[in-house]
Fold each of these.
Amino acid sequence: MDHTPFRPDAQDFVTDPYPAYAELRAAGRIHHHAPTNQWLIPHHADVSALLRDRRLGRSYQHRFTHEEFGRTPPPPAHEPFHTLNDHGMLDLEPPDHTRIRRLVSQAFTPRTVERLAPTVRRLAARLVDDFVAAGGGDLVAEVAEPLPVAVIAEMLGIPAADRPLLRPWSAAICGMYELNPSEETAARAVRASLEFGGYLRELIAERRTSPGDDLISALIAAYDDEGAGSRLTEQEMISTCVLLLNAGHEATVNTTANGWWALLSNPGQLAALRAAPEALLSTAVEELMRYDTPLQLFERWVLEDIEFAGQVLPRGSEVALLFGSANHDPARFLNPAVLDLARADNPHISFGAGIHYCLGAPLARLELLASFGELLAKAPHLRLAAEPGRGPGFVIRGLTELQVLC
C-alpha cells in the first residue's frame, strides 16, 4: 500500500495506534513497511500462527552469520549491548534457548510462584498503604514500578540498597527494542549494559563464595553441577538475570499504568469492578492486558523462504507481529474497542505464544492481581489529578507518570 497508517514515528499514532491498526487489518493480512523494511502482520490468527512457526526465529545467528543472512552487522560500538542481549533466552533459539529455559523455568513453576504470593501481597499492601496515606501521587513511580522491581529483585537476591539502579538500567537497555533507535539511545543502552553486566558479575562472584536462597545462587549451582553440555556460561547467567529483571517488570509496570488510565477513562467499568472485585478482578486483569497492550510489536526473522498470505517472504526478511492490533481484531474479539472487564473469551497474546511464551506470566498475573486488588480496596475514590504523561516509545507502550488523588 502506498499510504500506510502505520507511522511509529508520529506522535498521534504513538498516542493511539488502534484506529491505524483497524485500517491495516481491513487492507489485508500482510503489508510491507518500507521505512523499517518489515512485513507487518495485523491479524490475531496470523500473529498467533507465526509466533509458533519454527521457520521464523527471534534470532538467525544460530544458523547464519550476518553476511550470510544478508544483514549488516551492528556497529562495533554497540557490541556491549548485543553481547548482553544476544545471550539471553529471549533472543536465542534452540538448542541454547531450550537449555537455558529449562534451567530458569524451575523458578517460575506455578508451585514456586504460589509460594511467592504472600511476599507479593505484603509488598503490594505496603506500597498502597503508603500511597493512600500520602493522599495519592504518581501511581507509576509509587506503586506500578516498585512492586515488580522488588519482587524480581527479591527472587534474584539483589540487595535492597541496590534496587534503585535497576529501573534506569532497564529503561536504557529497552530503548534498543524500539524501531530504528537513535545513536543517543544506543549509547545509553551500551552504557547501561556495561554497568548492569559489571554489577551482576560482581554479585555472582559474591554468591559463589556466599550462596543464598535466591535464583542467582541456584543458577550458579546449575553452572557448577550440570554437565558441560547443559549448564549456563557466566555470560548467559548475566544475560538471563538482566532479561528477568527487564522483562520481569517492564510489562507489569506498563500494564498497571495503562490499566488504571483505561479504568479512569471508563468510569462505568471502574464502578462495576469496585462493586464486585472478587467476581471481576481476574477477568479484568486479562482485559486490561488486551485492551492497551504493553508490548505492541514483536519481531521475527524468516529463516527460510516461505509463502504467507500469497506473498513470498525470502530468507532474511523481517516480520513485525503487531500484538496491539491482534488484540483488537474483531475476527477474534467481540467489540474489541470496548473495555469489557467481564470478557470471558479473551485469548489475548500479550504474553506471546510458542516456545518464547512469557516464562513469567504466572508471576506477572500475581503481581497485577495484588496491586489492582489493594488499590481497589484501599483507594475507593481514586481519581485522576492530571493528564498522564505518555512514554515516547511505540513498541513498549506505557506512561511516564499517572498523577492521581485518593
Amino acid sequence: MKTVVVHAPKDLRIEQAEIPPVGPHDVKVRLRAGGICGSDLHYYQHGGFGTIRLREPLILGHEVAGEIVETGAEVTRVTVGDRVAVNPSRACGRCRFCLAGQPQHCLDMRFYGSAMRMPHVQGAFREVLVCEEAQALPVPPDLPFEHAAFAEPLAVCLHATRQAGQVAGARVLVTGMGPIGMLAMLAARHAGAREVVVTDVVDPPLALARRLGADLGLNTRSDPQALDRFGTDKGHFDVVFEASGAGAALAGALHAARPGATIVQLGLGGEIPLPVNVLVAKEIALRGTFRFHEEFAWAVEIIAARRIDVTPLLTEVLKLDDAVAAFELAGDRGRSMKVQLAL
C-alpha cells in the first residue's frame, strides 16, 4: 500500500508499506479521506513542535474515514461495507488514568501519527489501515467520507467545550481561526453561546467565520487595539477558547475576559509568557484541554445528524500522490481552511 511519510522538514515522500495482518478483534479499513492537521503541518514544516521532534521516518495523519473491507473472527459491531470514522487514540485501558476515566492521559497512549514516543506511532495517511474494532465508529451510508474525517478535530473542540464549563448563554471569544478555532466556534454555538467574537491575523478565515455564525470578526494584526473595547470595566467575555498558541493572543484574551471567566488553551505554540498578575487579580480560570475520549462518538453523531455542518470548512481534496501540494496548500492560511487527502 502507499503511505505518506515525513523524513525531515519539507521532506515528504510517498512510500510503499506492507499491510498488517487482521487479528481477531481487528478490522481492515480502506481509507478514503484524511484531513491534514496542524500537528501534521508542524512535522512537515519544522520537523516537530516544542520538544517533540522527528527521530525516524513517520507516516502522518490521524483525521481519517473509510470503508470496512475485512473483519476479524471476533468482530461483532461492524461489518464489511460499513462506512466508519476512525478514532486515532489507542489507550492501554489498564493504567491509572484509563481506570479513572481519563484515557486521553493514558501512560501508554498510541496516537496515530505521533513522534511523542520512540519508536514513533505510525499514522493513518495510508491506503489501508488495520485497527481495533473499537476504533471504527460507523457513520450513515450517505455521509461523505470527507465529512466523517472531521470527527477527530471536532472531538477535540467538544472536549474543549466541556473544559469550559457553562457555555450556554455565555459571551465567547475565540482567538485563532484555523480549523480548530473554527470548529471551536461552531461547537460553542452548538452548546448555546449567546455571543461569539473571533480574532485572527488574516482576513479570509474571519470572513468565513462570520458567514458561519460569528457575531464579529477582528483582525488583530491590522488593528492591534481591536479587542480594547472589550477590556473596559474589567472585561466582557465569560469564556475564551485560545486556539492560536500565540502569547499575544493569550494576553489579549486575559484583558478581554471578565473576572471569573474561563480561558481554555487549545493552541500549542511552545512556551509563551503568562501575565500572572492579571490572571490572579481577575480570578480567571486557565484550563488546558488535551485530545478527547467519549467526545469522538459525540462528534460522529453530531456530524452525521448535520447538527454541525463541516462542509464550508473543506477547502480542497487532493490525491494521495499529490501530498506535497496538499501540505503546501494546507500551510497557506490565506487560501485554505481544511485540506484533505483522497486516500
Amino acid sequence: MNDASTTTPKAEVAGRGLSSFYRNMTNTERRTFWACAGGWGLDGLDFMIYPLIIVTIMHQWSVGAGPAGFAATLTLLASAVGGWAAGLLSDRIGRVKTLQITILWFSLFSFLCAFAQNFDQLMVLRALLGFGFGGEWAAGAVLMGETIRPQFRGRAVGSVQSAWAIGWGIAVIAQAIIYSALPAETAWRAMFAIGVIPALMVLFIRRNVPEPEIAVAARKKAVRPSILAIFDPAVLRTTILASLLSVGAQGGYYAVIFWLPAFLHADKHLSVVGSTPYLAILIIGSFIGYLSGAWLADRLGRRMLFLLFSLGAIATILAYTQLPIPNEVTFILGFPLGFFASGYFSGMGPFLTELFPTIIRGSGQGFTYNFGRAIGALFPALIGYLKSSIGFGNAIAIFAVGAYALFFIAAFALPETKDRVLTA
C-alpha cells in the first residue's frame, strides 16, 4: 500500500547546504513555503501565550497548578481531535482549503480568550482554539510534503518548523512590552488579543497557494478511503510505531516547555520580566535546533536525527532540572535545552508524509501526530498535580526523560524514508 520509491534521481540532487534548497525552488514551492512558515509561526505565537501568562491567571483567579495545567491539557486534547479531523478533511476537500479553515478558527478563539470572565470560560475557549491549532499543522505539513521535491523536503519542511520558534519569540517580546506597559490584570488580555493576527495569513494563502497536483490526482482517481483505512493490516505497523514516535516527541516537548516559565519563577525565583532572558536563550537554541535539524534530516536521515536529538534532550533536561546549579549556568544551559528539545521536530513533518500513501496521507499523518499530541497533552496536567509533592524540576524530568526514551525506541524501529519520491 506504499506509493513511494526510495531514491531520488542523481540529476535532481541540489546543493547540500541548509539554504541551497531555496535557490532551486519553483515559485509555487516558495509561496507554499512562506504560507506554511507564516501559519506555523503564528500558530506558535497563539499557543505560547498561555504558558507565558499562566502565573498571572493563577494569581488573579486563585487557580492551582493542577487546574492550570489541565487547561493546557484540554487544549492539546482538542488539538489532537482537530488534527485528525483536519487530516481527514484535507483528503476530501483539499490541503489548502483545510489550512485556511484551521487558521481562521484558532485566530478567532485566541482573540475571544481576551474576553473570558472566569477560568472556566477560558478553559472552554482554549479547548475550542485547540481544534484549529491541531488542524493547522496536519494540513500544512501534508501540503508542504507534497509540494516540495524530495531532495529538499527535509530542509524545507524543517525550516518551516523553525518558524514556531519565531512565533514563540514574538510572544515573549510582546509579553515583556505589554507587561511593562500595562498592569498584569489587563496585560494578559492584551496578550490574547494579539492572537487574531494569524487570520491575515488566509488572504495570502487564498491568492498564492495552489493545491498540490499529486493530491488532486489522487482524489480524482481513487475511491474515498474509509476513516479507518490507516488501520488496514498493510499499514497498521507503521501507524502504531508512528503514533508512539509522536507520543515521545510531543510528550517530551510539552513536559519541558509548558511549565518552564513557572519552573523559573518557583525554583529560580525569577519574575515575569526577569525570566525573559532565560526564555530568550531557550528560544534562540530552539531556532538554531530547528534549522540544524532541517539540515541533518536531509544529510543524515530522519531516523538518525531523532536518535541523536532524543539522547541530547535527555542529557540536558537532567542537567537543567536536577543539578544544583546557579542561575548563570541555568541561563547557559537554556541554549542546548532549546536546541535538543525542539530541533527533532524538523524531521517529523517530512518523515510522517513519507511513511503513508497519498490517498490516506492526510488522515495517517493527522492521526499519528495528533495521537502523540493527545497523550503528550496529559503531561502538563500531571506535572501540575505532582508539583506540590515532588517539585517542578523532578516532575518535569520524570515525564520528559520517559517520553524521549520512547521517542528513541520508536525511531529505531521505523524505516528510514529520506529521498522517497511521492506518487499519486
Amino acid sequence: MSNSSAEDQPTYGVERHSIDYVSSAERHGHVRDQGPFWFTINFQFMSVSLGFVGPAMGLSLGWTTLAAALGILVGTIFMAFHATQGPIMGLPQMVQSRAQFGYRGVILPLSATLVNFIGFNVVCALLIMGGLHDLFGWDRSAVLIGLGILSALLAFYGYDWMHRVVKLLFWTSMPLFTILSVAIAVGLVPHGPIRQLHFNGVAFGVEFATCASYNLQLAVYVSDYSRYLKRDTPAAQIVGYVFIGAISSAIWLIALGAWLTTRLGLADPMTAVNQAGNALFPRFGTIIAIDSVLLMFAMIAMTSYSGMLTLATLLDSLRPVTPTMTIRAILIGLITLVWVGATLAAGENAINALMLLLTVLLYLLVPWTAVNLVDYFFVRHGHYAIKDLFRADGIYGSWGWRGLLAYVLGWIVIAPFASLSGIYVGPFAKKMHGIDIAWLVSLATAGLVYYLASLSFSAESEQAAIAASEFELEGSLRTSSQAITLEESPRLEPQSVAIR
C-alpha cells in the first residue's frame, strides 16, 4: 500500500492553487516527468519554423543548424536553472521575483512577461491558422475562435491536466516525427534541387539570437510547472531533465525545418511537413500536421495559464487579490481575449512575425533572467522568506532598487547594439553589419550591476524572517493535517484566500 496521502496525489478537477504557496503535503510531481514535458513543449511547428529563419536570409542548412544548436544551448542553460526554484519556493516563477524587484516594483518585469505570453500565443495562432487554411481550407477566424475557447478551458483546469495532455502528446508525436526524420536521413523523401546557400554572418547571428530567445522565454514560467515537485528534489536532477528535454526536441525540429525549406523550397512549416510526410505514405503528413496543431494548442494553453498567474501577481501587487474560481476564469478569459484580438490585428506572415517577436522578447527577458539568477545563486543562495513575498511591508519592501536599477540599465544598453531588421539598427550593430549582440551586453550588464549593488546586502539580515516564515509554514502544515477543501486557503496572508 502506498504511503502517499490523498493531498499529494494529482487532481482530476480544477487546480486549487494559483499564486499561493504549494505546501509539502501537496507536492505530487515527479522529476523524471520534467524531461518529457519540456521535450514535448518544443516538439511542434514553432520549432520547425525556426529552421526557416536562417535560409530565408541566405544561410545554408549546415550553418543554420549550427547557429540554432548553439542558440538553443545558450538559452536553455538559463531556462533550466530557473527550474530549480519551483521545488524550493513552491511558487509560480514571477511571484519569486518580488524578492529582487519588490512587492510593487515587480510590476515592471511582470508587464514585460505579459507581453511575452501574448506575443508568443499570437505567433502560435498565426502558424496554426495559416497551416490549417492552406491544407484544408479552414476559415482562419473559426480556427482562431475554437483555439481560444479550448486552450482557455485547459488553462482553467490547470497544472495536472496540462501535464496529462502533454504526456499523451509525447507518446503520439515521437513515433510520427521519428519515422519522418529517419526517412529523410536515408533519402526516402523526394526533394527538388538544393538551394545554393552559404555562410552569412548576419543571418548566423539572427538565427543564433532567435533560437537563444526561444528557450530563454520559457524561463519566465518554468517554475510554474516544477513547483509541485518535492522540496528536496536534487537541483542537478531537475536542471538535467529540463535541459536535455528542452534542447533535444528543439534542435531536432529546427534542423528538420531547415531541411524542409532548403530542399522543398516551401515557406510554410505545416505545408512543408505535410508534403514531406505524404510523399512517404498517403495522408502521413496530414496526420503529423494535425498532431503538431495539438502540440501547439497545448503550448498556447500553458502560456494562457502562466499568463493568468502573472496577471494575478501583477494585480495582487497593486491591491490584495482574492483568487477565487471566478477570478481565475476572468483572468484566463481576459488573457485569451487579448491574444485573440492581437492575432486578428496581426498580419499573416508568421515567419517574419516570429523573427521580430523572439528578438524583442529576448531584449525584454534577458535583464530579468540575469537579475533573478544572480540573486538566487550568488546573493541569497536560494534562501527566501516565503511569507514576506506576500507582504508589501515585508523584508523585501515595495520597491527593490537593486533589481529595478539593474533591469532598467539592462534595457538601456540594448539600444546601441540592437538590430531589428527594417525597424531599427543601433550604431554598434551597424558597424557589425547588423549582427545582434545586444542581449549578451544586456545579460552581462544587468547581472553585474545587480551583483555589485548587492555587495552592500547582508544575507544574515534576513535570517530571522526566513526562520519565522519556515516556522509558520511548518506550523500551518502540522495544524492542518486534514485535506484542504476548496473553501480553505493555503495562501499565507489572511486578507487573501486561495482559489475556491
